[in-house]
Design goal:
Helices cover 39% and strands 26% of the residues. The chain has 411 residues and is α+β, with helices and mostly antiparallel strands. Among the domains are: 130 residues, N Utilization Substance Protein A, Chain:P, domain 4; 60 residues, Nucleic acid-binding proteins (OB fold (Dihydrolipoamide Acetyltransferase, E2P)); 56 residues. Helix 1 runs parallel beside helix 4, helix 5 runs antiparallel to helix 8 and helix 14 crosses helix 15. The longest helix is centred in the N-terminal third of the chain and has 28 residues. It is elongated, with a radius of gyration of 37 Å. The N and C termini lie far apart (103 Å).
């Protein structure tokens, strides 16, 4: 195995793995110096010259010429008689410099060096991947789906590095097959048993933020800032934005003409409903905007307990709560207040709180109605049996029994 053959194989490694030249030269030199120490006991008097551009390797050993019979260390010194055979001009005290060929180390040593180089370069490559992605946490990347498993999906980036997209970081409506292109944000980077583990996410708020930066130039340029993002992936998201330029409407800029800018984001997120809200330090106004599209009549705040009692007209309650309670839950997360929704009673209308029927109706059934914003008898009676069955987890028979009990109260 010649010098060129050995080095050429790692020249390919260097090109493929994109390890920088100084690092590659350092690794090669370390490996060959280790070989020298094993054969000669020391590498202090050896120079290793590696040229990674053309694959040349040269090892030069320097020994001091000693009088015959006075050499104490053959690795560092050479006797005059032996030196004269190699170079007749040498005298005692001169330095004899010789070229050491790779073949002189023997086949076994060369194979061991090759194996060491492979392992060192793989280690370097893993470190490079780790460092590269550690610096890219929060960035959007595009990869290709390589393999789909039950709990996670393996994605390859454009350099063939492996990225993991766990099921928990996928939008519920996501469906991938091999060869699909997928966009996600770099979520977490760990080193597991010397192997970099790169987790990407499509559910993280940062993913939505980066999509807005791509679609809305004003955000990318810093004219509009995203103050906070809260998400129920695949269902609903609320984005609070603020403009540093009074001439720019932040909500309008993010949505775009006829929704042109936000449409691409919604499509990427599998039709996630995105509410863009104008940020304000006025808490009451902020909560009012956060509960959009519901129209609020009044709000009572408790700043110490961080709670807000929100009063709405009966037809606005279900809008404030939203499907599955997503709207009110996200509004709470966005504003930092625990929001309770109350139906504003009509002074001229006789009504009864459904808690008054706790003797006749089981508590868990009453809780189901309250969960969807129905906290009075008339609010329940205002909806049909079919609508109540659809909105709650109650059986049709149970709903009919409840309606007959409530109806009796007003007869």
């Amino acid at each position: 195995m010649s010098n060129i053959n050995l080095i050429d194989s790692f020249q390919e490694f260097k090109d493929f793995k994109n390890i920088d030249r100084p690092t590659m030269m350092s690794v090669l030199e370390d490996v060959f110096r280790s070989m020298i120490r094993k054969k000669y006991g020391t590498d202090e008097n050896c120079d290793v010259i590696v040229n990674t551009d053309n694959g040349d390797l040269e090892i030069w050993r320097t020994r001091v010429v000693m009088e015959d019979g006075f050499s104490e260390d053959d690795d560092l010194e050479i006797e005059l008689a032996e030196a004269k055979l190699l170079d007749p001009d040498l005298e005692v005290g001169d330095e004899h410099i010789e070229l050491i060929t790779l073949e002189s180390f023997g086949r076994r040593a060369i194979l061991a060096a090759r194996q060491t180089l492979v392992s060192k370069i793989l280690e370097l490559e893993k470190d490079e991947i780790y460092k590269k992605y550690k610096d890219r946490v929060g960035e959007i990347i595009t990869g290709e789906v390589y393999q789909v498993w039950k709990k996670e999906t393996l994605v390859l980036d454009d350099e063939g590095n492996e990225l993991l997209l766990p099921k928990s970081e996928q939008i519920p409506a996501d469906y991938f097959k091999k060869g699909d292109s997928v966009r996600a944000v770099v979520h977490k980077v760990d080193m597991m048993n010397t192997n970099p583990k790169i987790i990407i996410s499509r559910t993280a708020p940062e993913f939505l933020q980066r999509l807005f930066e791509l679609e809305v130039p004003e955000i990318f340029d810093g004219l509009i800032t995203i103050k906070k993002i809260v998400r129920e992936p695949g269902e609903r998201a609320k984005v609070a934005v603020e403009s540093y330029d009074d001439r720019i409407d932040p909500v309008g800029a993010c949505v775009g003409m006829k929704g042109s800018r936000i449409h691409g984001i919604v499509r990427e997120l599998k039709n996630e409903n995105i509410d863009v809200i104008n940020f304000t330090n006025n808490v009451q106004l902020y909560i009012q905007r956060a509960l959009s599209p519901a129209k609020i009549t009044s709000i009572k705040l408790d700043d110490d307990k961080k709670t807000a009692a929100v009063y709405l007209k009966p037809d606005q309650v279900s809008l404030a709560i939203g499907r599955g309670g997503h709207n009110i839950k996200l509004a709470g997360k966005l504003t930092g207040y625990e929001i309770d929704v109350y139906r504003e009673a009509d002074e001229h209308e006789e009504d009864v709180d459904i808690e008054e029927f706790s003797d006749e109706i089981e508590g868990w059934i009453l809780d189901e109605f309250k969960r969807i914003g129905l906290d009075t008898a008339k609010s329940v009676l205002a909806l049909s049996v079919g609508e109540l069955v659809k909105r709650t987890d109650l059986e049709e028979e149970t709903v009919k029994d409840v309606l007959s009990i409530l109806q009796a109260e007003f007869e």
